[in-house]
Amino acid sequence: MNREQKDYILNFLEQGVRFDGRKLEEYRPIKVERGFSENAEGSAKVTIGNTEVLAGVKLSVDEPYPDTPDGGTMMINVELLPLSNPNFEPGPPGIQAIEIARVVDRGIRESESIDTKKLCIKKGEKVWSILVDICPINDDGNLFDASTLAVVAALQNTKFPSYNGNIVDYKKKTKESLPLRKLPVSCTVIKIDNYFIVDPTPEEEKKIDSRLTVEVEEDGTLCALQKGGDKPLTAEDIDKMVGIGIEKSKELRKFL
Amino acid sequence: MSYTKRNDGRKFDETRPIEAKVGVIKNADGSAYFKIGKTVAYAAVYGPRGIHPKFLQNPKNGKLRCFYNMMPFSSMGERVRPGANRRAKEIAMVTEKALLPIIDLIEFPNSVVDVFIELPQTDAGTRCAGICAASMALADAGIPMKDMVASVSIGRVDDKLVVDLDYSEESYEDGTVADIPIAVISRTGEISLLQMDGKLSREDLKKAIEMAKQACSKIDKIQRDALKKKYEVKNE
Amino acid sequence: MGKLLVENKTIVTPGEELAEGMDFLPAEGTFRDKDKIIASGLGLVNINGRLIKTISMAGRYIPKRGDTIIAKVTDILMSGWILDIASAYSAVLSVKEAKDFIRRDADLTKYYDIDDYIITNIIRVTSQRLVDVSMKGPGLRKLIGGRIIKANSNKVPRIIGKGGSMVSMIKQATECSITVGQNGIVWISGSPEKEIIVVKTIKKIEQEAHISGLTDRIKTFLEKETNKKINIEKVE
């Protein structure tokens, strides 16, 4: 982007409005639909504007990690499908996908959303393992917030399959839900020049100076942070962005 | 034992319920959603666009590239490991061959049309659903096309030929099963995909192809209606 | 005696039969197969006497000599610029085709830098779709400020309107500067709230271009959005 194009946007932001007519701290319409899949143990589809993300949960019985013999395991993976964006290419996850997956993972893990002790079947031998995959169908910006929302909604939608101590019968879903506790909400705040915006479109994502993803628990406690973008932030910037994140997370939490 | 009644009560020549829609992926040049029973396929078309590296270019004609992928949570049972395995690569290849006869990329030398097929939920017949979605997405993308393609799997379950096998029939245990995915070019009735898994007599193959043609002509209508629906006048 | 199989101005899908008999002639977007005329893509039927054609509803821009387009500089060569023209192909602006004489060792970024948008004219398209453009001509220039949106290039004639009537009406209602490239790239510059109205209006035209009474609907829409009457006479 050249200087004139940037000045043009800044002039808009100065007047408190973005290219699509939204205010600076305004999200696009959000929709959360749970249980789109009959085969996954849990699933959710989240749309934020034209961004559409699917998350699906599979459960299996595995051995625990040696350092937590009585705790279940969780893995979060993002597949940036080339179907969803002309710039995504087929192949193993690149750094962009890995970053989103790890930030979502940290939010869930650090807020201790899942009571992993309750996923233990037999200490040191068998535990439930939770495998969550995030697949965008259409990437129209802000995959961070959409992904966290989709994962949390999919976890809420999850039911255990029946297990006889030996084999998992995936065809029989029980009524038992995951042992969920505090749930994180993600709000990504973007800094362009001296303006702060939320829920960026791809056009805006190209123009960011810096980005801060703020994952927040219900009481406002921060449970994960990720700074992105090429420019540094001041302590004042960070405080302001975290403030916006906490405030906006209340709106997003209504969808959980 | 004989397969006298289908597991889900369908007639032998009846497909599962179908839902079709185009323009479902805003970023794509063309896109479609095709659901048959519990099997769901999305297809997105990007292009014609530039192709790199250069040795992949064809200076005489545009290229068609298809990709087929099951989402990790798409099947009943354990998670599917992401990434293109041998099965996915073969299906992508036969999908390409199923679509190639209908599209005309002569006006687009050195370029590529990419078709991405993604399955969020599977219950047999995924390659056929993918081909149906892809044909609609190509038309939605405004790609020059002589015709459209519909596809369905014909099965032999024990002694019966059936249209559109579902997973319970594919894994029928009281007798043998053959699975025959077929794609039919709508106007000419030519076959652009034919595979078979299992045992089958020459006579039954003839019948299977006839059944596929009948079923595909119904699917063809659903595909075309979905394309037209995008442009219907909305009452304001 | 020939027979029409579809009505004028209906949407048809690839492979659909449009007419029977030798009285009709296939034009753009159609082909003849024996005594039938068939649609070769998704389009709007246009019957003009004996000529039958279909007007494409979708598809990327195909570069044509003489078109004035909006392009983005993506790279700089020894002796020119590479441009993204929202098509399967990129274009080249050679220093010889720049507005002014440029010395051999000049810094080309001083004229057009990467990410700049320019209004330019296509002067050559080869069989292999190499595209040359020129800045020599009235109105061809670098675009300063403003915003760019991408519209469906197939709808450009409707966005511009007969003799420029549609775009003039939008300009009058919104007091924005608007330039529509034949490749579907549109440049808009005005006050924030008015620009948003322009974007909405263009989206509406794209969606409803094939439905009759477009000008009236757009007029009503603009009047409602801007809260003021449009004087059609004043629209040149």
Question: What do you see in this structure?
Answer:
The complex is a heterotrimer of chains A (256), B (236) and C (236). Chain A has five helices and twelve strands. Chain A is of the alpha+beta class and 256 residues long. Chain A has one domain (3-253): GHMP Kinase, N-terminal domain (Ribosomal Protein S5, domain 2, 2-Layer Sandwich), CATH 3.30.230. In chain A, strands 1, 2, 3, 4, 5 and 6 form a six-stranded mixed β-sheet that branches. A four-stranded antiparallel β-sheet of chain A has the order 10-9-11-12. Chain A has a two-stranded antiparallel ribbon with strand order 7-8. In chain A, helix 2 (95-110) packs across helix 3. The longest helix of chain A has 19 residues, at 235-253. The two termini of chain A are 37 Å apart. The model of chain A has no long low-confidence stretch (mean pLDDT 96). Chain B has 236 residues and is of the alpha+beta class. Chain B has one domain (18-227): GHMP Kinase, N-terminal domain (Ribosomal Protein S5, domain 2, 2-Layer Sandwich). Chain B contains four helices and nine strands, in the order ββββαβαββαββα. Chain B has a five-stranded mixed β-sheet. A four-stranded antiparallel β-sheet of chain B has the order 7-6-8-9, sandwiched between helices. In chain B, helix 1 (86-99) packs across helix 2 and helix 2 runs parallel beside helix 4 (202-229). Chain C is α+β, with helices and mostly antiparallel strands and 236 residues long. Chain C has three domains: 3-56, RNA polymerase II/Efflux pump adaptor protein, barrel-sandwich hybrid domain (OB fold (Dihydrolipoamide Acetyltransferase, E2P)), CATH 2.40.50.100; 68-143, Nucleic acid-binding proteins (OB fold (Dihydrolipoamide Acetyltransferase, E2P), Beta Barrel), CATH 2.40.50; 147-234, Ribosomal Protein S8, Chain: A, domain 1. Helix content of chain C is 19%, strand content 33%. Chain C has four helices and 17 strands. In chain C, the strands form four sheets. Chain C has a five-stranded mixed beta barrel. A four-stranded antiparallel β-sheet of chain C has the order 1-3-6-5, with no helix packed on it. Chain C has a four-stranded mixed β-sheet with strand order 2-7-8-4, with no helix packed on it. In chain C, a hairpin with a 5-residue loop joins strand 10 (80-84) and strand 11. In chain C, helix 2 packs parallel to helix 4 (214-226) and helix 3 (192-208) runs antiparallel to helix 4. Chain C is flat. Chains in contact: A-B, A-C, B-C. The A-B interface holds A 36-40, 43, 50, 52, 54, 56-58, 60, 77, 79, 81-86, 90, 92, 131, 133, 135, 137-140, 170-171 and B 24-28, 38, 42-44, 46, 49, 67, 69, 71-79, 82-84, 114, 116-118, 120-123.
